[in-house]
């Protein structure tokens, strides 16, 4: 419950209509897309400007009230769940695309702008914003920046971080700072633009961002390579990269995922093969056909049973959409869907895929695996039921084993979803005690009262390490 | 002078031969490439491993001795000058290229490796490391990372930061941490890889780095566009980018620079024109010729008096080398050469070039301007004599006016050289009091004793702002 005095002051700042604390509105923002996390906020506040955010943050600091910034709540690691109560900050009023600068190739946006709207608007001007998280139809740019979101085009074009040029941020003391600029080069001080990108709202509240755009590639081509052998598919991925081709997209789907996706999307995906690679290249037409030919050859050499080029743009779009719908499709199977994003160096993809299958057998858990194979970023997913405690325990053990294996292979516990609260107990496995300690020093320096999305990234306890099963 | 006990302990850690405190060796490391900065260190220490660095840092922490890490001392902002004494850390033993990983397209190096050696070694394998600071023949990768160095290829390929994937760092408490990995995607915790990149040795000591490589572009083409009008050259730059062409290199040299460079390099550069653009594109042959044609057309439309394609690879290399030698050439003119790197959004290049000339006239200072026009990163340079105090005062005022103008145009006080000690008094102009305050909180959190390259980035006093002259 909100302190009465605090609530009155909040209303003075944000307006009565922008401070909601009815049970209904609190319930709506009590969870995000992560299973197993739910907690009521004390209020939901929708500021209209950076100055209002600053005033709200000062109030929260004074009254020691947690603040959880939230876009569309597509987070998969509990990052936007208000697990310690406090206020959820919504950006429904701060959702504008402020400027597309065609001379400097930048776009300036408010945090609540929807990713796909931005992509469509810049593409209408012949420009390209590559980061394309699967949730882009509803995800917001603020959420993408806070999580450093990836997507299907990450292999060639990088992730959100690679496109953030400047930020306006409200710090825990209410200070409004601006980092970077419309500048290709800027070394004036510490790289706050990138420190805040991916910091999951634990260091400050993002209120504006300037993003880099690039010229739209001329053409794009799409193909599917089908395999009866998982490892052959994984080997194709390594061989393509080692062959010095960087495709725009290089996605992997295993048979269980294929079946579920086809059942959902009904676009004629093959379900009788063990794995599929979805491969795309973009750029000038000649170059694209040359690369596609070379990649098709590599796939065939690595025992692809068939390599099929998409014949039309519609067919290609259907394939991409099907891939993006994997989570939605899997979510229909059972009440609880747990999707992870362990990531390994590209060279280790085959080993990781094999290990995931072995781990699934060991813990008697059916794991569907798909993901951005070219990045080494896999999404092993389990459809389960949170009410079945015995099975949930096995699922958790299986994921712990997957994280351990990823780290053993030189990888990480999260490639693009973030740590949030769900993966916080595993973070020390990747960073070590000293790494966590240094991060905590920075967190405490910028947020001494611990009001900025508390409980995220930093865990109360690190999970005990398991013995890897393979 | 070193405390005797401290020195004995240092020798125990690093070996007698690696702890030098003779007057001669202290003198050698008392300055870097920045005019006006000189100060004797108490000793020069050359560690052989990260563990030795950790032990040295612990000792320095115990005895409150400053540590200044140093590559080849090509810093232009006083960043590697031991202005508060202490020890200069050399990496002559930690200079190896440890691994080139052709499957993951990475190279792992020690900080003392020379940039050009790395570039040559990876190019021999058909791979490409784009960051190419003009000092690359002698600069080290450790220095490049600490300064987030740019170069001629920054426009298309980005700067050092865009290629750092993983770091090993020794923190001020002696902890050794590892950030990142051979991973295209990694969001496990704060982005320490980028926070430390460009932090100028003020947060920790870099002991190893893994850098991203890309496939070597197939071909490269080079041309010179000559102008009798500075602004026409600047307009051509904006129009090329707005035309959605991103050339590999887009360098600008004004007439005073051209004359000096030609006098130095004697390769037949035109000295009877007001400005030259050096333009390069790389990639597949067809694409390169298409882009070069389009750019030549734009230059002609914008009143280039001549556009000349380099006929041979040797001619192209001579042009690039001449451009890279600009600082050396200018340094021959007078005892003191002050080179700055104010940076503006690309669209503001014409305004900035005009302003620099006006500022030169106002303060009666001859400014030669060259630089990475495509990035908006200019290097206005003054050849002067530090012993002429009256002139030096005017030079300083002129540079203050240049910084002020750059910031007014949405730019920054340094694009690629770093803040160091020289530009620290101007940093608040760019970041504001709140920005400096937040940076200082991080510095204090990670380096509570203030031993890591003290006096750099953070100034005792901010310089008073001047009134811009145009």
From TrEMBL, chains A, B:
Domain of life: Bacteria
Spans traversing the lipid bilayer: none
Residues in FAD-binding PCMH-type domain copies: 37-216
NCBIfam families hit by this protein: glcD
Keywords: FAD, Flavoprotein, Oxidoreductase
Example of a GO MF term: FAD binding
Cofactor(s) the protein needs: FAD
Originating species: Metabacillus mangrovi
Family, similarity comment: Belongs to the FAD-binding oxidoreductase/transferase type 4 family.
Protein name as it appears in the record: Glycolate oxidase subunit GlcD
GO cellular component: glycolate oxidase complex
The keyword Oxidoreductase belongs to this UniProt entry's keyword annotation: yes
PANTHER family: GLYCOLATE OXIDASE SUBUNIT GLCD
